[in-house]
Amino acid sequence: MEKKEKFFLEIYNLGIIKFGNFTLKSGMNTPIYIDFRPIASRPNLLIKLSDLLIHNVPSYDFELICGVPYAALPIATTLSLRSKIPLIIKRKENKGYGTKRMIEGIYKAGQNCLIIEDVITSGDSLLKTIIDLEKEGLIIKNIMSILDREQGGIENIKKKGYNIRTLFRIKEVFKILKNKSFLKKKEIHMIQFFLKKNNTKNIQNKRISYEEKKEKISHPIGKKLIDITLKKKTNLIVSADLIDTKNILKLVNLIGDRICGLKLHVDIINDFSYSFINYLKKISEEKNFLLLEDRKLGDVSSTNSLQLHYGIHKISSWADIVTVHLLAGSMSIQNLNIPSNMGLITISEMSSYGKLSNDNYIRKVLNISLKNPEVIGTVAQRKVDDRLLLFTPGIHFYKKENNVGNRYIHPIQAFKEKGSDFIIVGKAIFLSENPKMMAEEYRNAGWKAYENEL
């Protein structure tokens, strides 16, 4: 234990623990952020860490080593060099060119692979790595992590039948730091709050209800959307990517009773007019659903404001919700002068294959979303903070990838794995032979998926 303590105090001086307000990859907010990547710049510490890890592996019969991308990669590489056991590299996503392989290196099916992770929170990243390795026919018996945040991740991994060990647990390292007087009073208070929160609320396997979510949402449109959802028992938003007003109105008259929102791309409509908007608005009021314009504003604030208020579409005069990209930064959605009854949805992460957004970008978008009072939620492919509504596109009963790079998931997967609040379905409904019946099937599936996660 003395050797472990001494090592942790060494790496602590690199600034691996930060205090403040952070959003993790899982979407959870935390006052404590732990980052082991600075160790990569200290070869002597990498060697010490790899020796500690190998010493704690319960059995030494593995033939390959793989680090969870990307923070654990330098650690796994050092471990491979020290043990002389081959390294394989797991990509976060397919390159889209060359061999398009997810696993790089020399290996064959049936080999036993040791997985290295840096920090365990929910275990989601680790499980993705396990799945991709097992797809290649590799056997996973042992997993080693540096630190367990004690938020349910270790338990989640063990429940799935994997043997996982960790060098440190969060309570253990805080005790070390406190005993050595390394912590300030403010930091001790943050830690006590964190540990208390962990004790009362472990990693969220169970989602909160719409009623509970409504209490956390501040924007009136967000609250209204939840009210509609509860009254109609539907979390279904239909994407009407149609180019003629006649077909849009025909679809809306068929499915309006089964949806909580209708998503439009008005710039693709050939015969757009205000008489169409007025009629659509009237139907939305009669059948009780919101209008979502998927404009994906992505310019500077002044241009975004012009696109909302002017031009032939005058979006701010009729849309309840508008989508925005945040490539231009937080200022791009400030001073838009939108009506109080209009909300924004940010695009954190799209469902398309080969998307360019990385975890760092997604975290920044989520942080900006939480700080802007006009944002009611976000589009993402992961669980997010409960103060944001989560919208999940790319929903289809049959998991598949189409010829333009869109990935589809089942409603059950959206609620169970992504923590979704609202599912967005397009072609599966409006291209079906019976849109009314298909909308009802998706409405039922979405509502049951939500209830099953409570």
From TrEMBL:
- Residue ranges annotated for the Orotidine 5'-phosphate decarboxylase domain, each copy included: 235-442
Give the UniProt record's GO annotations in the biological process aspect.
'de novo' pyrimidine nucleobase biosynthetic process; 'de novo' UMP biosynthetic process
InterPro entries the UniProt entry points to: Aldolase_TIM (IPR013785), OMPdecase (IPR014732), OMPdeCOase_dom (IPR001754), OPRT (IPR023031), Or_phspho_trans_dom (IPR004467), PRTase-like (IPR029057), PRTase_dom (IPR000836), RibuloseP-bd_barrel (IPR011060)
Q: Where is the active site?
A: 294, 296, 299
Under which pathway is this protein filed? Pyrimidine metabolism; UMP biosynthesis via de novo pathway; UMP from orotate: step 1/2; Pyrimidine metabolism; UMP biosynthesis via de novo pathway; UMP from orotate: step 2/2
- Give the E.C. number(s): 2.4.2.10
In terms of Pfam families, this protein maps to:
OMPdecase
Gene3D superfamilies reported for this sequence: 3.40.50.2020, Aldolase class I
Specify the enzyme's EC class, one word.
transferase
The reactions it catalyses are: orotidine 5'-phosphate + diphosphate = orotate + 5-phospho-alpha-D-ribose 1-diphosphate
Q: Which UniProt keywords apply?
A: Decarboxylase, Glycosyltransferase, Lyase, Magnesium, Multifunctional enzyme, Pyrimidine biosynthesis, Transferase
**Record-listed substrate binding positions:** 241, 263, 351, 426
Quick one: which residues bind orotate?
121, 149
Q: Which GO terms describe its molecular function?
A: magnesium ion binding; orotate phosphoribosyltransferase activity; orotidine-5'-phosphate decarboxylase activity
Q: Which cofactor names does the annotation list?
A: Mg(2+)
* Ligand binding (5-phospho-alpha-D-ribose 1-diphosphate): 25, 91-92, 95, 117-125
The UniProt family comment states: In the N-terminal section; belongs to the purine/pyrimidine phosphoribosyltransferase family.
**What does the subunit comment say?**
Homodimer.
Q: What does this protein do?
A: Catalyzes the decarboxylation of orotidine 5'-monophosphate (OMP) to uridine 5'-monophosphate (UMP). Catalyzes the transfer of a ribosyl phosphate group from 5-phosphoribose 1-diphosphate to orotate, leading to the formation of orotidine monophosphate (OMP).
The name on file for this protein is Orotate phosphoribosyltransferase
Q: What is the source species?
A: Blattabacterium cuenoti STAT
> Which gene is the coding source of this polypeptide chain?
pyrF
